[in-house]
Every structure is written in C-alpha cells, then in structure tokens.
C-alpha cells in the first residue's frame, strides 16, 4: 500500500506569524534608543510567565518600563510597524480587573497568532541570555550587543551567538490505520504522545529519528519523512516533526527507560480522543489523552487522522 505523506493544512501554532525581525536595526544602537520610549515591551519572568489582559499578551510601553533602553532589553523586531522588545523581570506584575499571568504552555491556545509568536521568541532568547553570562570557552563575563542577539566576551571580544537545540518528534505508523504512541514514565496514566529526542553531534535528523525510536521503544523504522517544524522555547528548542513507519508486530523494548508504556491505537480511537479534548481535560473518561494544540505533536496527529 502506498503511504500518503502527511501535510499540515496550517503551520503549528507557534510558527504561524512571521515577525519582522529587522536585523538591519540590531546593530544601530541610536535607532533602538529612539524606538524604546514608544516600543511595546513584553515582560517575561524567570519561569517563562507573562501577564495577560483580557486574554491577550500584555505589552508595556517602553517609557513606562525604563526611562532609557536597558542594556539587557532584547529587540525582537517590528510588529505592525511598532518596535517590540523583551525584558526579563523577577515577577510578572498583575493588575486588577481582567489581568492575569500565565505561561505559553497554558495560555498559548488563547493567544493570537501574533502574540504566540512574540511570546515564543521572547522566552527562547531570554532563556539563552540567562545561561550565557559567562563565556563557555574561558569563563570571562559576556555583555549583550546588537539588540540582544549577540553576547561579547569582555576579555577577548569574541562573539557568542544564541543557541537553539534541534530536537525531533515523530509519529510512528504502520503504513495503514494504526499509530504507535508512548507514555513517559513521569506522565499520568492515559497521557500519550509522539516520540521525541534531541539531535546529537554528528547526526542527521533522519539518523536521530531512527536512533531515538530504537532507544525508546526498540523498533526499526523506515519511510522517515519530514513534516514541519515549530519553535519550542522550553528552554530554547526547535522541534522538527517527522513520520516513520514500523511493523505493527515489532516487539517493543523500552531500552532507555524513558518510556513506560507504548501502545498501538487505531485511527478511530485517535479521532475520538481528539474530539474528547487534550491533556487538560482531566474530567474526560477517554482512555487516551493527547497533547494540546500548542504542540506540533497534536498538529501532526490531527494531520494523520485527516
């Protein structure tokens, strides 16, 4: 039977809005200083939380955050011709009325495509800064430059650039109407998802898919096919979605101990689970709970069901 490639009808949630990153402005300190007072500023705390107003991302006015542009403010780019910055704060300020605080995992579905993309970019770049205050080469302090997109070694002048960790996430199918899903040991019963892992040095994406599937569930896979990607700022990853085929009678072997349970599900069972909700639907009596829609995992599962 010919395998029909999975295609997403729309990009994953965090990949739907293309921010104008305005790279030409990053090295222009004067232009960034001029833009700061009227800029939109998203504030992120150490746990990746931000404030919301009426369910939307709460942007502060630059001049209300600081009189002049802080050295650690990151220039994200321009959204609808307005400059946008991100800053790290100790605690997210929440006012009265309809304001609240949340994080991207919980609030992502309620955000607009623009706000979701801004929040993902802000969290990822600020997470890098939080771990890059000292050079990994000689331990010398580093300072942010180019609008927060470079850190310079204060001793040698060497530039350090933001780090993004590549990770694959794979839907395993039998070439027909069944899909293999796994439950990590730390997850509650009934919660299943795709198989994922980080790409190792000297490894292609396809090699990573094959290795992770063998390590996690002991299966050999073929027909490894790329589907789509999505930023995943937890802390600063890029999720690369794939599908892979394996035989349904393959013996499962949880070799690395990360997966506690893996089961084959029919297309109808997965469709019913999608209709029942997601991991947040704890009241659901569905025997299968799937990731929520902020995750590329759910987007790939929905595309496979369709």
Q: How would you characterize the largest beta sheet? A: 6 strands, mixed
Counting DSSP E segments of at least 2 residues, the number of strands comes to 16
Return residue spans where pLDDT drops below 50 for at least 5 consecutive residues.
none
Kindly state the percentage of residues in helix.
Answer: 10-25%
Q: What is the element string, with H for helices and E for strands?
A: HHEEEEHEEEHHEEEEEEHEEEHH
| Rg, alpha carbons | 21 Å
CATH class membership of the largest domain:
Alpha Beta
Mean pLDDT: 94
Domains counted in the coordinates: how many? 2
- What structural class is derived from the secondary structure elements? alpha+beta
- Principal-axis shape equals globular
Tell me about this structure.
There is one protein chain. The longest helix has 18 residues, at 113-130. The protein has 306 residues and is α+β, with helices and mostly antiparallel strands. The two termini are 18 Å apart. The model has no long low-confidence stretch (mean pLDDT 94). It contains eight helices and 16 strands. Helices cover 23% and strands 30% of the residues. The chain has helices at 23-26, 29-35, 62-65, 104-107, 113-130, 205-217, 267-276, 296-305; strands at 40-44, 49-53, 56-57, 59-61, 74-79, 82-88, 99-103, 142-145, 150-153, 159-160, 165-173, 178-184, 195-198, 222-232, 237-245, 259-266.
